[in-house]
Amino acid sequence: MKRLACLRVGIAAFGIASIGLALPARAVIVLGGRDATGALNNSGQNINPAPGNLESYVGTWGSYLGTPIAPDYFITANHIGDGGSGGTFLYSDGGATPLTYTATLAGTQDDLAIWKISNSDPAFTHYAPLYTGSSEVGLSMIDIGRGTPRGTVVNTPSTSTPAGWNWGSPNPRLVTWGANTVSSVMTVTPTMPGFGGEFLKWAFTNNGNPDTGILSDGDSGGPAFVFNPVDNQYELDGINSLVDEVSTQSDPKGNFTLAAALYNTDGFYNGTTQITDANPFVLNSYSTLISSRLDFIDSVTGVPEPGTFGFVSIIGIIGLYRRRAR
Predict the structure, then answer these.
(1) pLDDT tens for each residue of 124-142
(2) Structural domain contains residue 143
């Protein structure tokens, strides 16, 4: 999800009326955590291969990620720019050895940016298919990011029971993943340029699934794949952009927001309102929706969707502050 740092975005009410201050999203934090073999280790991050080896569709774009979607194009978050890459994209193209590509910006819309690799570079042969349906809600999803690990435990102010974890120190070399269910598709009218339109939304619920994830600082630009039951495969349908935040005290301007992955917000503040058990909710993550922007993507790449080359098929607010997952 974005590199969660710098800016903050305030989102109003369940229908989301506006975005104010925000932060970009880093590595996906999960309830449990798995080592490289897939064994549970309670580390807060899954570093083993994602279902369907979906991580094979991501390349590194400076400190962030990009996902090839056509022979000469990859997509990422607009707000990260070139991610500090100097225009260099590293991608293994389905193999074991990263290849170096030179890229220039081809087009942007909201928080999506499409980059074109040089004509002198070899074309991508392994790129992600795009979700072209319109029924994301309830679908299983896998999100991939590159950001902070899980930090120290955070307790609720009101009951002093565990509520989640602080974000740890950034580790942009690590690519991690989480599994969730799409809870809704939300339309946002931004007060800050670049963060409007429709977003995939999913919740960080303490549901007993160790793979349940939330975005953190540095996850911006990473892909969100939904499982399409019609095609029986995961397909790209979002690019990590925002994550919710709460405050540690009454805070209408977002000056005391907590950089944390919380599954329980009881006792924290949403603006000037303290969150209580009578109105419980968890933090959500947001990825800029792909399926509603296919016309834009096709206009840039010139490749009608779906692009399925080389894909591996498999048989997985009430006014909170939102950070860009930068």
Answers:
(1) 999 999 999 989 999 999 9
(2) yes
Cβ-count burial 127-159 (b if 16+ within 10 Å, e if not): bbbbbbeeebeebbbbbbbbbbbbbeebebeee
pTM for this structure? 0.86
> Is residue 251 in a domain?
yes
Is there a cis peptide before residue 71, judged by omega within 30 degrees of 0? no
Identify the residue whose tokens are 């911006």.
220
Euclidean distance between CA atoms 90 and 68, whole angstroms: 11
pLDDT tens, residue by residue, 155-207: 998 777 899 999 998 765 689 999 999 999 998 776 567 888 999 999 999 99
Residue at token pair 């991508």: 124
Q: CATH number, domain at 49?
A: 2.40.10.120
What total of structural domains would you count in the chain? 1
Residues 6+ apart with CB under 8 A from 322: 8, 9, 10, 11, 19, 22, 23, 242, 243, 244, 245, 286
**Low-confidence stretches of the chain (pLDDT beneath 70):** 1-27, 171-173, 190-192, 278-280, 303-326
- 77 found inside a domain: yes
